Amino acid sequence: MAKQHSVWNATDAREIIAAEQHREGAMLPILHALQAAFGYIPRDAEPLIAEALNLSRAEVHGVISFYHDFRREPAGRHVLKLCRAEACQSMGSEVTAQRLLDLLGLDWGETSPDGRITIEPVYCLGLCATAPSALFDDEPIGRADQQMLETLVMEAA
Amino acid sequence: MKIFIPQDMAAVAVGANRIAAAIEAEAAARNIPLTIVRNGSRGLFWLEPLLEVETQAGRIGYGKLTVADVKSLFDANIFDGGTHPKCVGPVEAIPFLARQTRFTFARAGIADPASLDDYRALGGYKGLEHALSIGPAAIVAAVKDSGLRGRGGAGFPTGIKWETVARTASDRKYIVCNADEGDSGTFADRLIMEADPFMLIEGMTIAGIGVGATKGYIYLRSEYPFAITMMNRAIDLARRAGLLGTTIHGSAHAFDIEVRVGAGAYVCGEETSLLESLEGKRGQVRAKPPLPAIKGLFGRPTIINNTITLASVPFILAEGAQRYAELGYGRSRGTMPIQIAGNVRHGGLFECAFGVTLGELVDDIGGGTASGRPVRAVQAGGPLGAYFPPSMFDTPYDYEAFAKRDGLIGHGGLVLFDDTADMAKMARFAMAFCAHESCGKCTPCRIGAIRGVETFDKIAAGIEPEKNLALVRDLCETMKLGSLCALGGFTPYPVLSALNHFPGDFAAKPLPLAAE
Question: Where does [2Fe-2S] cluster bind (chain A) (predicted)?
Fold first, then answer.
């Protein structure tokens, strides 16, 4: 299922920040909540977070840019994360992934021009005894083979 | 009739939800009353999706099912003693499971993980009851006497850490569970949280009472969405039952737990980087000292332990430190949940006493490779662990024995590779992964890893290979001795082990012939 995200607006963002702000070390919970709502963390969110947490905008920017999870722009309607860690490599994941990227004409982290799908690397989903592994939106996939993944990305609407 | 189909993420990844739905529909169509329990996984992942049917002769398993099998299961009348080709017999008699000594994972896969009643019926919360009856000092003494060592990888004696926190006076103390299980080939933390979440809650609560901490955090990686949901559900249930909150189990002790979700940074599995992340900062490593036990989260004394470590505590308190300590090998006491993964025939979680050899784990228990080809190498201990060739399979599974052979057991992962593996590629990957995940604080890791990748590329291209191989070794020395944490410091393990045991793989690759 493709995720539905709201269009960025500062009013909702302020409410989201206010709901998490009371926590100790609230930064990551705030960032996750913003990304869950909008699908990414726009630059415009930085001053709002900075103000709420009494930090500089640079500090907020530094945290966002440190973590692989946080997006600076919206992803495609679907996101396919392919595991590139050792256990999956031992089952041929790199060959499968490259063929899939070639098929779509994409590089790691890119979104198809029609906005349908983003392909991202992930380093371990903890499904290492049923490798190769992937995560398609929220759905985990084990024993992933070429045909299965191709069908998945071609049928994703 | 009661049947079991796991809700575990790995089981779902290979179709458990589709099978559960198909069985439910088929049972309804045939008017067969079935109670479907969505249990946790037993950890026999190669058999997933594994259906278990409760019978008078115990639970009978049907492994590696597909939706296409469902009709035939009903046609074969398996719910009434019929036979089916996918039957694997009584689950507890499967050698992979029967050969284990399950202390920490005794309950995994038996019941609905979110049932507090089931948890109690299977011996849960006995450890906490005992802990409350003996008091803080005796709790810490029991953990010390058990010989339990940190299961995250460092192997530091847990009791000593707890004692330090207990002795350090402060207005607030914290228990932090490191559930940032980023090592490829490991899934023990995930299995604990998905199959037996109350055990972790119980372990953290005992730790809190033992050292006088009232707040616990579980730093849980975002790559584990099922574990996040299950842990939050279990915490909520424990709170409602008075097992978390202001009066734990009716005592004067207060303790509560919050799940904090990571954000895709491998380095946050390093304890000081994890604390920075919990505080809402970039996950950059802190220089030690001060130790987290003295100045940890928000500058307060903090127990930061791995998930397995904390989950081992309820058993120790319930069954006694002696019972735990009497198993083991050398200074490695108790059991270790070893995770056998990668290109393996029988992949899964194997909990046993320390001392079993690497060869037994790979060949006897794991059954060799999934591809059926010869095993070429086993990476032990995650991305920062060494590659062992079959000639070293006599190494006993023990912290010190692995260290003696320039390896580490780490968090207990074993990743098998067959004879198609290119070890030069794996050595380059180790450097590339370090570069990708480096927090950037120290130079040997931040810059060294990138130079390592570049140098391997030169070697592969045949540019001054001898000189460049010497350079890689020199670089490894610098990273090992000069890095602040294990990311830069241990990346040389996979690199050097690949160089030492598979030197032939580092010869220049023949250039592909130009297409006509």
Answer: 83, 88, 124, 128
B421 contacts on A by Cβ (under 8 Å): 90
Residue A41 scores a pLDDT above 60: yes
User: Is B513 inside a domain boundary?
Assistant: no
Q: Tell me, yes or no, whether B490 and B398 share the same domain.
A: no
**B410: contact with A, CB 8 A cutoff:** no
- Which residue of B172, B175, B184 is the best one to mutate when testing the A interface, meaning the one whose CB has the most A CBs within 10 A? B184
Checking if the pLDDT of B516 tops 50, the result is: no
In a domain, B111, yes or no: no
Q: What is the pLDDT of residues A61-84, one digit of tens each?
A: 999 999 999 999 999 999 999 999
Which positions in chain B touch A62 (Cβ < 8 Å)?
282
Known binding residues of A are 83, 88, 124, 128
Question: What percentage of chain B reaches a pLDDT higher than 70?
Answer: 98
User: pTM of the prediction?
Assistant: 0.97
- Looking at residue B80, what is its pLDDT? 85
3-class DSSP string for B313-352: HHHHHHHCHHHHHCCEECCEECEEEEEEEECCCCCEEEEE
Domain ranges, residue B362: 331-418
pLDDT 10s digits, B443-470:
999 999 999 999 999 999 999 999 999 9
Confidence of residue B491 (pLDDT cuts 50, 70, 90): very high
Closest CB to B283: pick one of A66, A122, A139: A66
- If we measure between CA atoms, which residue out of B424, B468, B430 comes closest to residue B450? B430
Question: What confidence category does residue B347 fall into, taking pLDDT thresholds of 50, 70 and 90?
Answer: very high
Closest partner residue to A87 among B14, B184, B283, by Cβ? Answer: B184
Select the residue from A69, A130, A135, A149 to test the B interface by mutation, using most B Cβ atoms within 10 A.
Answer: A130
For range B255-275, the mean pLDDT: 97
Q: Which residues of B touch A26 (CB under 8 A)?
A: 280
Q: Which of residues 26-45 of B touch A (CB under 8 A)?
A: 45
Residues belonging to the binding site of A for [2Fe-2S] cluster are 83, 88, 124, 128
- Measured in whole angstroms, the distance separating CA B367 from the mean position of its chain's CA atoms is 21
pLDDT of residue B81: 81
Residue B515 in any domain: the answer is no
In-domain check, residue A2: no
Q: Is A142 in contact with B10 (Cβ distance < 8 A)? A: yes
Q: Are residues A87 and A140 in the same domain?
A: yes
B2-4: strand order across its sheet: B35-37, B2-4, B51-55, B58-62, B87-90
Q: Do A90 and B10 touch (CB under 8 A)?
A: no
- Does B4 lie at the interface with A, CB-CB under 8 angstroms? no
Pairing of strands B348-353, B387-388: unpaired
Do B33 and B173 share a domain, yes or no?
no
Contact check, Cβ <8 Å, A90/B417: yes
What are the angstrom distances between the C-alpha of B14 and each of A67, A157, B9, B78? 29, 22, 9, 22
**What's the one-letter identity of residue B130?**
H
SS3 B415: strand
Do A51 and A109 reside in the same domain of the chain?
no
Please check the confidence at residue B515 and state whether its pLDDT lies above 80.
no
